[in-house]
Amino acid sequence: MSTKAKVNPAVATQGPTERVEKIKARFLATTPEICAERAKLITESYKETEGLPMTTRRAKALEKILMGMSIYIEDDELIVGNQCSMPRSAPVYPEFSCEWLEAELDRLAKRTADVFLISEDVKNTLRKDVFPYWKGKTNQEIATALMKQEAIDAGNAVVYTVGNYYFNGVGHISANYGKVMSQGLNAVIAEAEAAKAKFDYADAHQMKSLHFLESTITANKAVIAFANRYADEAERLAAVQKDAARKAELLEIARICRKVPAQPAETFQEAVQSFWFIHLVIQLESNGHSISPMRFDQYCYPFYAASKDSMPAEKAQELLDLMWLKLNGLNKVRDENSTMAFAGYPMFMNIIVGGVDREGKDATNELSLMLLQAAANTKLYAPSLSVRIHEGTADVLYMKAAEVSRMGLGVPAFFNDRTIIPALLSRGLTLEDARDYGIIGCVEPQVGGKTEGWHDAAFFNMAKVIELTLNNGYDKRTAMQVGPQTGAVTEMKSFDDVMAAYTKQMEYFVGLMCHADNMVDLAHGQNVPLPFLSSLVEDCIGRGKSLQEGGAIYNFSGPQGVGVANAGDALTAIKKLCFDEKVISLPELKEVLDKDFEGAENIRQMLVNRAPKYGNDDDYADEIAVESANIYCREVNKYHNPRGGQFQPGLYPASANVPFGGVVEATPDGRKKGTPLADGVSPIGGFDISGPTATVNSVAKLDHEVTSNGTLLNQKFHPNAVKGEEGLRNLIAVTETYFKNGGFHVQYNVIDRKTLEKAQEKPEEFASLVVRVAGYSAFFTALDKSLQDDIMSRTEQVF
Amino acid sequence: MNWREKVLDFDNIGDRGEGLKGLVFDVQKFAIHDGGGIRTNVFLKGCPLQCLWCSNPESLASKPEITFVTNNCIGCGKCLEVCPAGAIRQGETAGEDIIIDRERCTLCGQCAKHCYAGAINIIGRYVSVPELMQIIERDRKFYEQSGGGVTFSGGEPTAQPEFLKAALAEIQKRGIHTAIETSSLLPWEIYAPILEHVDLVLTDIKHMDDAEHKRLTGVSNQLILDNIRKISSLGIPVKIRLPLIPGINDSDRNLEATAEFVEQLSNVQSLDILPYHRLGEMKYRQLDISYPLKGVESPTVEHVEERIRALRERGLNISVGG
Ligand code: SF4
Ligand code: SF4
């Protein structure tokens, strides 16, 4: 099992320094606001560049933003670089969409989740200088124009939502951070210059590539100039600084910002600063979430190793903690509906440690442990921290991960190399690339610096398909025939008939969803290419193509099925009670569902207590759940995207299980109308009554390889269950057994229900309580009440 | 086959049927406080003792029993309709629960079968060794990964000696660690063959004073103490468990006597202190039995620590909470 570790666990025992505590306290005291600077600058730039090639306009706009936005260095900071004119604030990206923002402007400070303050000044700027220009020009409007009406109708019925990239940038990427650290942006510029020679300006298509390459050069130069602005600012502050120690720090910051990211980093601090500039600018350019640093312990290790002996251990840990705080400072404003699916200001930036290296050997190093320690030191919701587990995972790493897990922050998430590497191989990655995978966002694997994965292409509402199957394709809520007529329940004479109808509905809607996704994809390629980001992903420069047009080596689109457990348990109840035992006929059952169980609570109880349930290691229920998921996956696998890549299914929800449940009628699993769906591949909350081992056995029966876009299993433990060294060993044993059986991902929420109840009553006292939502963590008190309730009802495994 | 499936089988509940069967009232997976690692606990029904503080009253009788959980009842009236013995009637006053006449009930299981809300349950199912093995095997990988296994508890598992022995033998044969949680109150001739298949014994010492022991449990402690000495001489690892009941067995004198006894044994892994809790009280209600220990409060953590300080100081390996 575990190999002998060379890594000394003592390296990761440094607690947070005073500096870290101070900056964190400042962060917690700040309420997010909306900042209009970026919106104003990009609008001006777009006005100036009308008529130029889109890629050129994008580069010039980025340049204008980086040169024109306010910059500042806060007290105590060592790693510098801000996203907005105020800390923790969110910029506006009107080029992607802004109709919703205009409509919701006055509600931002009043809504129930993810509140943003907004000043009257900012509102005026947006209303006067920004919104009017973008009418009819946003990516969202252009994508809508490309879509079939049926696809829009099915979207309105919430059979799926492609909302993420429809309203926003794509994000969901990992750039080649390691390359910037070791070679610098000057090297990227030189590469783009060299590549220009390959293309013939007389050829109209190739000319497009030349425009693209030019734009990457403009963008990279702008980023270097941006870093130099911080060098200037640090020098200015140093000149007036009385405190000698702080003065020295500021001068060091100035020196570093003159050097990186233009040139190769040499020290640890230079590497972290270089990383931060790149990460920050990618965010400023693109507005996507899930921009993921991935294998930081691998690509940053050489710099740590180079500085380790000349730097006190606490300094190295402090730099990581400061980077953690910086990552928390990034923010994003979403439309009110989307905050339901992505609640808690999440940015889904995933950092992953451990696993094997490109040669297949254990990759654990000191940084792996120190990054876990950074999560423990800062106790905040970002970044999403993950651990890769393989046959030979070092015991020190496993134990450290279990310890941090037990703290109840919901991190780290555990990922299984033994399933994920073969899954990626099956999608055409080379063996070395597959071994080098990291995680994007919640649970989506890819190899960093080479992939445009579109991992969050859509959420697909599997429970809605159950409803539509029982209603012959008719959606009661929107009063529309959104699906094909696959037969009334009175015509379904056997369970096979039901499955056949379900399959047909599935085929139809998955097809529409993929179409809708592809139209959004096309729109991104035409309207919002991202030259800076593209220059840091292979092989965009070589191919002379932006990421958005297929420049990456690997291209995917990954839509997620939500509500596997509901679909499975609904079909199981139908099979068991309507056809096997014939205690109720299907039309009778439908009648009861139509009335939302009114006057028929005993029938609901029968559905709940007399039909087998997924999650209890009961093959009857598990097999049907697996089949209902496979039907979805098989359909998704059939499609291709305009970037020349394949669709690949995932089964995870972010927090979409709550709003999705909101539009689904009562279902045969005994679920009442409008209540949340089960999250990820987890069983329905409260139905997994046979303990975590049974849950894990059930979930492992799903095909976690075909769902190469990721599956998500949440397990909640009471602190008692993981007490002491033995408790940690048990947590590891559960993880290890799940993984040996083919599991993909598991994460643990170690918090007792009482604590959550108290937090609901007295949010003020629990402002810093972080919980795992689904694939990411958030402040509990920032969540909407319905989501809080949902988290509380996930069965707590107490024994 | 899993336990839930068995529980959902309501037909012929009272009928033992052919072959060797045990009366099981629960199977819990992921048990992590009863013998090391991740375990499956099998609870056998029936117990010869009558401890005042028993938290599993449904485990006492050696036959299946009918229980009623007020909170779950949705008043659908199905049970009244289906009972062939006329053993169920509606309470007289409005809003009152249904009333089960346990004398008349033949344990046919029909009411439980149709009580979808789970208000009426029949506790206890007859299970054969092969059936039990199917349930146990489902978590084999967890046992292997964590150093866990199977623990038989109760009730009193040794009250069904033939079944227990056969089950333990089969489990051990398949390479799974075995443990029993027992009062050790049984003749050695019956105990010894069972112990041949046991890797770890968890056994209670409820009181060292024989007269007190009789008062609290209805039986003498001599046989129990003799048996524990014999187990020790056989070299089978033992965990001694001490249910700590305030005012009943937590005096300095009794704790000291317990410690002295434990110190004479050679194979004790630990002395597990199980502080009294009242979680069982609710179950008495469901069985229409009055709670014998009314008025005794659960001890606080501080109280427990204060009481056992002397034991820790003697250098015994103590764990609290089992
Ligand atoms: S189990 Fe007893 S109470 Fe229930 S239906 Fe049968 S005879 Fe009546
Ligand atoms: S069948 Fe169950 S729920 Fe219905 S009245 Fe009887 S006890 Fe209550």
Write the layout of secondary structure elements.
The complex is a heterodimer of chains A (799) and B (322).
Chain A: H1 18-28, H2 37-48, H3 54-68, H4 99-104, H5 120-134, H6 139-146, H7 149-156, E1 160-161, H8 163-167, H9 177-183, H10 185-196, H11 204-240, H12 244-259, H13 268-286, H14 296-299, H15 301-308, H16 313-329, H17 336-341, E2 350-354, H18 366-378, E3 384-389, H19 395-406, E4 413-416, H20 417-426, H21 431-435, E5 437-440, E6 444-447, E7 451-452, E8 458-461, H22 462-470, E9 474-475, E10 480-481, H23 495-527, H24 531-535, H25 540-543, E11 554-557, E12 559-562, H26 564-580, H27 586-594, H28 601-610, H29 619-637, E13 646-647, H30 657-662, H31 692-699, E14 714-717, H32 724-740, E15 745-750, H33 753-761, E16 770-772, E17 777-779, H34 785-793, E18 796-797
Parallel strand pairs in A: 2-3, 3-4, 7-11, 8-12, 11-13, 14-15, 14-18
Antiparallel strand pairs in A: 1-8, 4-15, 5-6, 9-10, 16-17
Chain B: H1 3-7, E1 21-31, E2 39-44, E3 65-68, H2 78-82, E4 88-90, E5 98-100, H3 110-114, E6 120-123, E7 125-128, H4 129-137, H5 140-146, E8 149-154, H6 161-173, E9 177-182, H7 188-195, E10 200-204, H8 210-217, H9 222-234, E11 238-244, H10 252-264, E12 268-275, H11 281-286, H12 301-313, E13 318-320
Parallel strand pairs in B: 2-8, 8-9, 9-10, 10-11, 11-12, 12-13
Antiparallel strand pairs in B: 1-2, 1-7, 3-6, 4-5
Helix pairs in contact in B: 6-7, 10-12
The structure holds iron/sulfur cluster (2 copies).
One iron/sulfur cluster (SF4) binds at residues 73-79, 98, 114-115, 117, 119-120 of chain B.
